[in-house]
Each structure stands twice: as structure tokens, then as C-alpha cells.
Amino acid sequence: MLLEKLIAYPIVFVVGGAICALAQILIIKTKLTPARILVIFLIIGILLEGIGIYDPINKFAQAGISVPIIGFGAALTRGAIKATAKYGFLGAFAGGLMETAFGIGVAIMASYLVTLIFSSKSKQ
Q: pLDDT tens, 56-71?
């Protein structure tokens, strides 16, 4: 059990680092903006979940794949698929939001708390 957890850390670090390195290479070597690269990675997550290979990758890479935007895209797709099966066509629109609501809520609350603690200053 402990050995499995110790082995997981380097795997997560390498996979997450490789995703970040790929994004950095795309920023440096192409004319793609960071926003477009973000959307590309989101779509990769959607495609991986849609064709059913995200889960095996996630079991191996764990937080290395689930924490970046790829994991968010997969979660949106997973929620849409589940809700479509349960509620029909309209579930496709609500399912992604239901699946990711907790994470989005935490991000909103954390950003609010940070704004209470720190004050922004414009660059000079």
C-alpha cells in the first residue's frame, strides 16, 4: 500500500509535467494563444472520455491527468453521458454542469477568499 503510493508520486509528476511541457512547447513553437491551447486540451479530455480511454489513463496517471484541464473536459463529458442516459437529450446540457459543480464552486469560493486576503495592484 505504501509502496504503491510512493510510486504514484513520480508517475503523477511525470505525466502532469509532460502535459505542461507540451503546452509550453505549443506556446513557444506555434502561433497558438494560451486560450486556444487550453481549448485544445479541453477537447482532448472530451475525446478521451467520449471514446472510453480516459479511465484507463486516469487509473495509471491519477492526478497527473485529472487535475489539468484535460480532466475537466473528461468530467464534463462523463456528466453529459450519465445525464443523457437518465434524462434524455436535455441531460446532455445539464450533466456536465452537475458533474463539475463541486469543483467550480470550490474554485469560486477560493478565489473569493484570496481577494479578501490580498489586494491587486496595477503594473507600472
A: 999 999 999 998 899 9
Q: Between the CA of residue 69 and those of 4, 66, 113, 119, what are the distances in Å?
A: 25, 8, 23, 27
List the one residue out of 15, 70, 82 whose CA is nearest residue 45: 70
Q: Kindly report the pTM of this predicted structure.
A: 0.82
Question: Judging by beta carbons within 10 Å of its beta carbon (0-12, 13-18, 19+), is residue 72 exposed, middle or buried?
Answer: buried
Count CB atoms within 10 A of the CB of residue 21. Answer: 10
Residue with cell 513520480: 10
Instruction: Tell me the H-state helices in 30-123.
Output: 34-50, 54-61, 63-66, 69-87, 91-117
Q: How many CA atoms lie within 13 A of 102 on its CB side?
A: 3
The residue type of 87 is Y
Q: Which residues, other chains included, contact 54 with Cβ-Cβ below 8 Å and sequence gap of 6+?
A: 45, 48, 65, 74
Question: All 3 cell numbers of residue 22?
Answer: 507540451
